Amino acid sequence: YWGLAAKDPRSYGHYLSQRVFSPLGIRNHHFLRAASGDPIEAAEEYEALKVKAGGVDLQLLGLGKNGHIGFNEPGSSPDSRTRLVEIAASTREANAELFGNVADVPTHALTIGVGTILAAREIWVIVSGSSKGAIVRKVHASPQTPDIPATYLKGHPRCIVFLDEECARRGGLTS
């Protein structure tokens, strides 16, 4: 979220640190600088860092109920790069619990673009909960389209999607 530091308990940086990186002992990761400053400069800084590092080995993603990946909401271009975006109302509503109410959810986020994501050597998408079953089914059945940004992942040679049992069942991907 634009305006939140990676250590803010409501940020995805904090979420990932607490639930993924620290438990697994992963130290080599990078968060977008989204707390303050110029968002264009922060986006350019991330893209330059990615190039300097030789690219991204593993991109870890979730999936939004509207098919967004990162904060690449419906309408995002497959060649989009790191940038400041407006967060869709449905995404803000889905995240209201973290902030107490929807009015306090930031309206903008700094996100890596779909094109930036697709440049990673490997992509893992972790999707959990029965509420995500419908969008998993829709992504699976749809051609690549900006209306459902996650469909662009279908063209990546090393994209792995991890579903929990409830999500897979609701998505019609198990019997």
Key words describing this protein structure:
175 residues, alpha/beta, 3-stranded parallel sheet, two-stranded antiparallel sheet, 7 helices, 5 strands, 33% helix
Account of the protein in words:
The chain has 175 residues and is α/β, with parallel strands linked by helices. The strands form two sheets. It has a three-stranded parallel beta sheet. The longest helix is centred in the first third of the chain and has 14 residues.
Task: Give a brief rundown of this model.
The chain has 175 residues and is an alpha/beta fold. The protein has helices spanning 12-24, 39-52, 89-94, 96-99, 114-118, 133-141, 165-170, and strands at residues 58-61, 83-86, 108-111, 122-127, 159-163.
Write the layout of secondary structure elements.
Layout: H1 12-24, H2 39-52, E1 58-61, E2 83-86, H3 89-94, H4 96-99, E3 108-111, H5 114-118, E4 122-127, H6 133-141, E5 159-163, H7 165-170
Parallel strand pairs: 1-4, 4-5
Antiparallel strand pairs: 2-3
